[in-house]
Write a structure and sequence with these properties.
The protein is mostly beta strands and 398 residues long. The protein has four domains: 55 residues, no CATH class; 169 residues; 38 residues, no CATH class; 65 residues, no CATH class. It contains seven helices and 24 strands. Strands 10-11-8-7-9-12-13-14-15 form a nine-stranded antiparallel beta sheet. Strands 16, 17, 18, 19, 20, 21, 22, 23 and 24 form a nine-stranded antiparallel beta sheet that branches. The longest helix is centred in the first third of the chain and has 11 residues. It is globular, with a radius of gyration of 22 Å. It starts with 6 loop residues before the first strand and ends with a strand.
Length: 398
C-alpha cells in the first residue's frame, strides 16, 4: 500500500483516508484509529472510542522521529534502501563498506534522557523485580515505537514464535558514556561466536539488529556493565493487539517496584515466576550492587538518584534531604581473571561472579563462561586467582 499523508490536528491522512491519530513515544510513531477494519489495523482487545488501531513509524510517513536523532541514510540510484539494509546484515568485507555503515550508524545517537528499552523474557522480568539491573543489548524506544505486538517485537527478542505477551524494561539514559555501538572491533569476538555458544540472534557487528526488513540500531551497555536504574523506570507489557500496559514503575528511594497494572490486566503477570499479582512492592535484596550512582554534596559522598535529563539528587527517604548533588559518577567493580577483564557481579570469601567485558570464543572456552542472554557471558572465578580487583569511577557531566 502506498503511503500518502498529511498531518491535521489529531488526524492522519493515510492513502486518501483520514484517521484519528495520536503520537507515540514522543512523536517517533503514530497510533491510527478506525471504527471499521482496514489494511494493517488490529482489533482492540478492550475497545473504547474506536475498535481498531495500527502503528506507523513517523519516518515512514515522512516526519521527524520526535525529539531523538533520526537514522540518516545517504540514498542514491546506486545505493538504495534495500542495498543499505543488505549491507547492514553482514560484516563489511571492505573498508569503504565499513566506513559507509559507520557513517550511517553514528547518525543515531543516545543523549541524556533518551528513553531506552530492553526486551525481556518472563524470567527476565522476574530477575529485574528481584534486583537485576539493565545490561547488555538495548535499543532506543523511538526506534521500536512502531513495533508494538509480540509478533513485531520478535525481531529484537529473537524468539522464533511470538507469545501472548511481550515484556520490555524502559528507562532514561543517564549519560551517553554508558552506551557503546556494537560495531567492528567492539564486538568482533561476539560476531565470531559459534552457534552452540550463544543465545538469541547472531550479533552482526554492524551496529544493527538482524532483520529481514527493518533497519534497527542497537546499543550495548559499556563493557556489558550493569547500569543503575534511574527514577521512574518501567516494566511494560505489550498484548497481541499492540496495547501497552505499564506493569511496574521503579521507585528509587524505596529501591522497589510499584505495581500499576489494573485488575483487567493482571493475567499478564501469569507467566512471571515467583511474582504475586497482588504485591505492591517487590524489594530489591542486592545491598552491594555491581554498579551504583555516587554523588557529592558539600564535599561528602552519598548514594545518588538520577532523574534525567536534569535532576540528580542525594538518595534519601525524606523529601527535605534530597539535595541536588554537585557531581555525579557511576562506580562499577572490575576484575581480571586469566587475562580477561570482567565486571564483578557478586563476591564472597572464595569466589567472584564475573561478566566478561569482551567475550570471544577463546576466553569463553578458557574460563568456562556461560551465555545467559544475547551477548552476555558470565562465570565464577576463584577469588585467589583474580587480579586487579578494583572499583572504577565513570564521571558524568551534570
Amino acid at each position: 500500500m502506498t503511503l500518502t499523508h498529511e498531518i491535521v490536528t489529531g488526524t492522519v491522512v493515510l492513502d486518501g483516508v483520514t484517521y484519528p491519530a495520536e503520537p507515540v513515544a514522543g512523536g517517533a510513531a503514530y497510533e491510527l484509529f478506525s471504527e471499521m477494519p482496514a489494511p494493517g489495523f488490529l482489533r482492540l482487545i478492550m475497545p473504547s472510542r474506536w475498535s481498531y488501531h495500527r502503528f506507523v513509524a513517523a519516518t515512514e510517513l515522512g516526519f521527524g522521529s520526535g525529539s531523538e536523532s533520526a537514522l540518516s541514510v545517504p540514498l542514491s540510484r546506486g545505493m538504495t534502501w534495500q542495498r543499505v539494509h543488505a549491507l547492514s546484515q553482514s560484516l563489511p568485507r571492505d573498508p569503504n563498506t565499513a566506513s559507509l555503515l559507520a557513517q550511517i550508524r553514528t547518525t543515531a545517537t543516545v543523549r541524556r534522557g533518551t528513553k531506552m528499552v530492553k526486551p525481556l523474557t518472563a524470567l527476565g522480568v522476574s530477575a529485574v523485580l528481584k534486583g537485576q539491573l539493565p545490561h547488555g543489548f538495548c535499543y532506543r524506544e523511538c526506534d521500536l515505537a512502531h513495533l508494538r505486538t509480540p509478533a513485531d517485537l520478535s525481531i529484537v527478542t529473537g524468539e522464533a514464535a511470538a507469545g501472548d505477551v511481550a515484556f520490555v524494561l524502559r528507562w532514561r539514559a543517564i549519560d551517553p558514556i554508558d552506551y557503546q555501538i556494537p560495531f567492528g572491533e567492539t564486538v568482533a569476538g561476539l560476531a565470531a561466536m559459534p552457534p552452540h555458544d550463544r543465545i538469541g540472534a547472531h550479533i552482526l557487528g554492524t551496529g544493527f539488529a538482524p532483520s529481514s526488513a527493518e533497519l534497527i540500531p542497537e546499543w550495548i551497555t559499556t563493557d556489558f556493565a550493569d547500569l543503575p536504574l534511574p527514577a521512574n523506570a518501567a516494566l511494560v507489557a505489550y498484548t497481541p493487539d499492540g496495547t501497552e500496559v505499564v506493569l511496574y514503575t521503579y521507585q528509587p528511594e524505596q529501591r522497589g517496584w510499584l505495581r500499576l497494572v489494573g485488575p483487567q490486566w493482571r493475567h499478564l503477570l501469569g507467566p512471571l515466576r515467583d511474582v504475586s499479582a497482588d504485591q505492591e512492592y517487590v524489594p530489591l535484596p542486592r545491598l552491594n550492587p555491581s554498579s551504583r550512582l555516587v554523588g557529592t554534596f558539600r564535599g561528602e559522598e552519598f548514594d545518588a538518584i538520577a532523574d534525567p535529563p536534569e535532576e540528580f539528587r542525594v538518595l534519601a527517604m525524606t523529601r527535605a534531604a534530597r539535595y541536588p548533588v554537585e557531581s555525579l559518577l557511576r562506580r562499577t567493580r572490575y576484575a581480571r581473571w586469566r587475562g580477561s577483564l570482567g565486571t564483578v557481579l557478586s563476591a564472597d570469601a572464595s569466589w567472584l561472579r564475573l561478566r566478561l567485558c569482551r567475550p570471544d570464543p577463546d576466553n569463553v572456552a578458557a574460563l568456562g563462561a556461560q551465555c545467559y542472554e544475547r551477548g552476555v557471558y558470565e562465570t565464577w572465578a576463584p577469588a585467589a586467582e583474580v587480579t586487579e580487583t578494583r572499583e572504577i569511577d565513570i564521571s558524568f557531566q551534570i
